[in-house]
Amino acid sequence: MKVLYTAEALATGDGRNGRTQTPDGRVDLDLAVPREMGGSGDGANPEQLFAAGYAACFHSALQSVARAAKVDLGSSSVGALVGIGPNDSGGFALRVTLEVVIPDLPHEEAVELVEKAHLVCPYSNATRGNIEVTLTVVED
Fold first, then answer.
1. Has residue 81 got a pLDDT over 80?
2. How far apart are CA 29 and CA 140, in angstroms?
3. CA-closest candidate to residue 128, choices 119, 138, 139, 137
């Protein structure tokens, strides 16, 4: 693979209760374990960051496949829900649901574009076979 861009971030402190930042300062966040997992919830958490990144990346992939198909997505959006919980081997696993809204596009056509985007998106390619990912096209 020819690398086009490399992102860099550093996490410090006590893991999920610490801080993360990028060298350029564009990301600079306090981290905290969510209340649902016994923490304070007073900061961002890795699942939120993953959800934000996956939603943005998938939306970009969707726009790319729509342009190639000469389809106007209008005011489309992608939401990502990232769940975390214990797995069967004593660790933890993630589960993702992507909720895609494409107003004014027939449902079947929207589903087809979403499935094509899932083949193009780097996050989808990275998670395929590792994380359960559910694609949902929401009727507007």
1. yes
2. 33
3. 119
